[in-house]
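User: Teach me something about this protein's shape.
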Amino acid sequence: MPHLSEHSHSEHIKQSKLQSLANGEPNVGFQQHYLKEGEIYHSMHKHCNQIFLLLEGSLVVNSSEALGKTVRKGEFFFIPISADMSCRALSPCNMLLLFFNQIQQTCEKAYFRELWGLYPQEEWHFQVITMRRPLLRFIHDLTTHFRQLVDVPTYQHIKYEEFLYLLRLTYTKKEMVALFHPIIGKSIDFRRFVLENYLKVKNISELVKLSGLKRKTFDRQFSDEFEIPPYQWVLKQKAKHIRYALSETNDQMQEIMKKYGFIIAPHFTRFCKDYFNCTPLELRKRLRMEKIQTHY
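Assistant: First, the predicted structure itself:
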């Protein structure tokens, strides 16, 4: 048996820990949804990444990633794991949803790692992308046989892998980065672990404990992956969720405070002033006024 150097041995242990973060059964599936005009759809798969493909109609998407984005027939978009999301049909809609909780295949992980760092100067935001002919043909075949195969997990998993491979063949690397930027990283397993669990813990210490890594190792890995310290990153994510909650729900301020870990109102007010330059109540009023003015 070949001898491992001390450095190689430590790297092997590190990789084993990262692999353990990705344990769990893959959760993959396709679902077809029909919406009446004015009907609101709320995401039912927040624990998964989601790709929504609009086959008929038009709708407006609101999520913690972006508010008030219009999507039309022949377009699709991606919602990362743990993100809030709802949409309202502007006309009768036929929508195909693909959900998946992890990138499992080694070749797919390698591809997503390759995308990481290709465009370091770009600042990525929520994207709506047009379906091209190969994708349209794939969807037509899938939905034609959908009723017969909806309850066959093996078929759905095969079609999921085929779908991801088809995206790689049909779209440029820059388009793929624009679409999947929330889950693209240097370590796909570590990034998935963070996205999957940061809302489930009260603080960074709990997240570190859940990871099984030492605090210094976790902090170094996190900063290397997300390019900012863990505490700052989590605060930015909380700001996204709070903005969505104030815009798209009727939850009371106390409910929102409690949900995102604020003990007293002054701390919550200070947080909103730091991130949005206004109080929570002022932010809710502003967001709802923007919704009225832009008709979303």
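Now, about its shape. The CA atoms of residues 155 and 294 lie 42 Å apart. Strands lie at 28-35, 40-42, 49-56, 58-63, 69-72, 75-79, 85-89, 93-100, 128-130. If you'd like, I can walk through any region in more detail.
User: That's plenty for now, thanks!
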